């Protein structure tokens, strides 16, 4: 911590700091837990910084993208097009055309109309596009409702029934190759039973598809494994062993069927920290405010999902106090936590907002004409 304190103190705040050794250790743990030959695609939306992507590529992962630009970033960082999947409910014709030109591994198709558009665009190019159909299994992920994606009423994918009703159409489209099913039920899922429920839904639909004469070579079960935001120091690496075991034990695979995952947060979440300084302290009748120079423009998750990130103070004070920790943005939702116990803090003290590696920088913005926080790395 001593070295970090001087590294942090010498720099203008706020900024992101990444522990690349922790990222490497996380990638090692992921790879040793994957004893089943699963294909893991990194969800690039979680963090697309070059040093991070370089390590992920070196570890042999593919990428999961949600826009043409993300496909481009993946390719520019050396990921093979045969290891790239593209999801998204609103793919534009331009993005579809680009991904077809790049020969990506598969489109994760989110509506019947999109399927027809991909078929048409591929036909014009004289190509055949691989497609997996994204299924909304209508199960609860037990996470904040803004980050469930496979529950009733979510915009993602189509129902299993809709797929079964569309099989004749699928057979009739000559420019798409129906290779698999795709699922992703949500993010920051800590109850592994939710994934067991997913496996049961997958098994059920696979049985119906087989009865209809479809044996698909690929199954993509998405990502969503959560991290420990409360105790990041105690649990810096998620339990990938237990996670993969759920799928190994509960998925009923067809002979030679390949399984794909799309993990984001669990790979990069814990290696990133938002480093900030105390700007002002202000007591009112109701609150004791600690006003930071980092805010919701740097890390949006607390304002958007009432998410809580552990705050660590580098103050050396012995006594503690409770603070309402807020940012400088002109929004009352710009707060990192209420009644947080911290060492007594004074203007200029450095604080770390932990577990900010995933959906931190990729969601940062310049509202209030703010500067974008830069990134530094442990190497
Ligand atoms: C389609 C898709 N795949 C994968 C992910 C990655 O999720 P996570 O970062 O929770 O692993 C997301 C984000 O929720 C997603 O929307
Ligand atoms: N952005 C969300 C996760 C959603 C990912 C995309 N479906 C978060 O910060 O937790």
From TrEMBL:
PROSITE patterns: ODR_DC_2_1. Its cofactor is pyridoxal 5'-phosphate. Residues 38-268 form the Orn/DAP/Arg decarboxylase 2 N-terminal domain. The keyword Cytoplasm does not apply. It is an enzyme of class 4 (lyase). Its EC number is 4.1.1.20. Pathway: Amino-acid biosynthesis; L-lysine biosynthesis via DAP pathway; L-lysine from DL-2,6-diaminopimelate: step 1/1. Keywords: Amino-acid biosynthesis, Decarboxylase, Lyase, Lysine biosynthesis, Pyridoxal phosphate. InterPro entries: Ala_racemase/Decarboxylase_C, DAP_deCOOHase_LysA, De-COase2_C, De-COase2_N, De-COase2_pyr-phos_BS, Orn/DAP/Arg_de-COase, PLP-binding_barrel. It catalyses: meso-2,6-diaminopimelate + H(+) = L-lysine + CO2. Residues 15-357 form the Orn/DAP/Arg decarboxylase 2 C-terminal domain. GO terms for molecular function: diaminopimelate decarboxylase activity. It comes from the Bacteria. PANTHER family: DIAMINOPIMELATE DECARBOXYLASE, GROUP IV DECARBOXYLASE. Belongs to the Orn/Lys/Arg decarboxylase class-II family. This is Diaminopimelate decarboxylase. It comes from Marinoscillum luteum. The gene is lysA.
